[in-house]
Amino acid sequence: MNVTTTKGASTPRRPRRKRGTLSPEEARLAQIDHAIDCAVVAALLVDPISWNALLELSDEQLGRMFKNRLWKVIGTSTILNLDLPSMRDEGEKLRKGVSRKSKLRTSEHPIRSALTNSGGYDLVHQGKLLRVADYLGAADVTERKLSKSLASRKVFSIELEGEVYIPGFFLCPMIHHNDFAKVIRGLGDTSGWDRWNFFTTPIESLSGSTPLQFLAVNKVKPVQKAADEFAKG
């Protein structure tokens, strides 16, 4: 139905949004709000005294420290091969009586759905691949030191549409970079994406574990052997 204006022109009515539905931007903000609520509650429960020190930090300091710790934890989850989105969904199924805002699933988020369909950007969105500047801040290293690590193959990079990214699992202290170097050198001239797939994919010769999982428990030689076989194709 059209509405006639005072000048006689007709203007179509805007479709009304269903009650209880959220726009993509509202859904994104709701997810952020819920995540911050969870982080604050966790901080208070874990240490109800020391959290006061957080209030003395500047907004920039607190934000940077939080993001750096978050990336390190995500890197650890990659090494342990934890499927965090699935764990989150299972947790939501167990929670009852919470508001719809806290029930928003990542898979329902239109932004994440688009990223999932775009391949590598899903890993960026999940924090598993970091932009160089973010990695430097989280690892507390200089660009020069990162360049040396790349040259010595203690670290590798991945290129996505002209931008360079560093896997977040290099932030985790569970695996020494010298052990990474032994394996990466064995992978030869394989691409960054091939190396990512090698480290994060379960391998039959490693009892169905990923190379990252084996390296985390100091089983380096079996991973080196698997890397040699992978490089040979």
Brief write-up:
The protein has 233 residues and is mostly helical.
Assembly level: single chain
What is the strand content?
5-15%
Mean pLDDT: 79
Distance between the termini: 64 Å
Helix coverage percent? 40-55%
Q: In order across it, which strands form the biggest sheet? A: 3-5-4
**Number of H/I helices:** 12
Low confidence ranges: 3-7, 94-117
Q: Largest beta sheet, briefly? A: 3 strands, antiparallel
* Overall tally of structural domains: 2
Topology, number of strands = 5
Calculate Rg over CA atoms.
Answer: 23 Å
The H-and-E topology, N to C, reads as EEHHHHHHEHHEEHHHH
Q: Which geometry do the CA atoms define?
A: globular
> Structural class of the helices, strands and pairings?
mainly alpha
Task: Describe the model.
This protein has about 230 residues and is mostly helical. The protein has two domains: about 25-55, no CATH class; about 60-85 and about 120-230, no CATH class. The chain is about 55% helix and about 5% strand. The chain is built from twelve helices and five strands. The chain has helices spanning about 25-45, 50-55, 60-80, 85-95, 110-115, 120-125, 130-140, 145-150, 175-185, 190-200, 210-215, 220-230; strands at about 1-5, 10, 130, 160, 165. The strands form two sheets. A three-stranded antiparallel β-sheet has the order 3-5-4. Strands 1-2 form a two-stranded antiparallel sheet. Helix 3 packs across helix 7 and helix 9 (about 175-185) packs parallel to helix 12 (about 220-230). The radius of gyration is 23 Å and the shape is globular. The chain starts with a strand and ends with a helix. About 20% of the residues are buried. Mean pLDDT is about 80; it is low at about 5 and about 95-115.
